[in-house]
Amino acid sequence: MEENISPPVPGWVARLDGHKSDLAACEQSLKSPFDPSCERVMESGKLFWALRSSTFNHCQTADEVRVSAITLIKHLNGVLKLTRDAEPLKFDGVSRIDEGGQIHTAYFAEFHDRARATDSFILAEFRDAQGDLVPPPPPELSVAQKWMKAAESCGDIADALRHFGQPTNWYDMWTTYEIIEDAIWNATPNQSRPKGDTTKKRKPRRVLSMSREWVSENDFEKFAESCNYHRHGARTQPKPNQNATRDEARGILVQILRGWLNKKVP
After folding, report:
1. Positive or negative, the Cα torsion across 92, 93, 98, 102?
2. What is the DSSP string of 68-83?
3. What is the CA angle 176-182-186, rounded to 5?
4. Which of 55, 79, 106 is the last residue of a domain?
5. Do residues 178 and 260 share a domain?
6. Which DSSP symbol is given to 56?
7. Is residue 192 in some structural domain?
8. Under a CB-based contact definition with an 8 Å cutoff, are residues 76 and 89 in contact?
9. Which residue, 134, 156, 144, is CA-closest to 79?
10. Does any domain span residue 146?
11. 93: phi then psi, degrees, rounded to nearest 5
């Protein structure tokens, strides 16, 4: 049975590629008419996922759209990993949809890591206290769209999402945390910053970050010690007493990053 897909709106779009469940997560997170948005477009009897953004509006060439889209997708991958636990999507070309609905596509030679997410993806239902289906709430910017818009004007958010959106590794996890730690420190007046040696010889910046209480002190140290142990090649640091797996460390970082973003982007 053919899917009911509306005719495409004219304009530039970036083509997305990835596992179907991750593409579906993107479409659900970036709904039109808000910006950016993701939609399925029918082309020669086949569907592709298209990313639209107001940043494409003033582009004159496909290459200009490509440059903007690659940056946008890096932020998008961080947001989708954080909100949907999705794996990275890939840039797969640029299309221009003309007024007659014709699609003109430019492909580029890009290198991408292959990744996939879980096959499960559940569409939201809205029910009342009696369990009956009710209309969904009025449309509004999703959390993903809010964070992506914030990344356009805040370098700290953009950098944190870009590193967090990489395939899970110790370097990018720790770099994501350091961006948050530095942002908290720089936003704190001098008189409110911890001074000198702190309990257990923790650096003042870490003490200030821990004071946000996004995770327990035990989980915080487990994350920090495990990241530093592994990112230094497990040579220069003593093995932590509580060594976190990469998945456990990422779970702790998710709580820290989400807490920071919720504070930065109410």
Report:
1. negative
2. HHHHHHHHHHHHHHHH
3. 150
4. 106
5. yes
6. G
7. yes
8. yes
9. 144
10. no
11. 120, 175
pLDDT per residue of the chain (266 residues) written in tens, 0 to 9: 345 677 889 999 999 999 999 999 999 999 999 999 999 999 888 999 999 999 999 999 999 999 999 999 999 999 999 999 999 999 999 999 999 888 999 988 654 443 333 333 334 455 556 667 767 667 788 999 999 999 999 999 999 999 999 988 999 999 999 999 999 999 999 999 988 666 666 788 888 999 999 999 999 999 998 998 888 765 555 566 678 899 999 999 999 999 999 999 98
214 belongs to a structural domain: yes
Residue 229 in any domain: the answer is: yes
Does the model's pTM come out above 0.90? no
Across-strand partners of 46? 43
Total domain count, the chain: 2
CB contact at 8 A, 51 and 38: yes
Q: Of 53, 73, 106, which marks where a domain is finished?
A: 106
The tokens describing 179, both together, are: 């961006």
Range of the domain at 31: 11-106
118: amino acid identity, one letter: T
CA 11, 92, 144, 188 dihedral sign is negative
Q: Are residues 97 and 180 in the same domain?
A: no
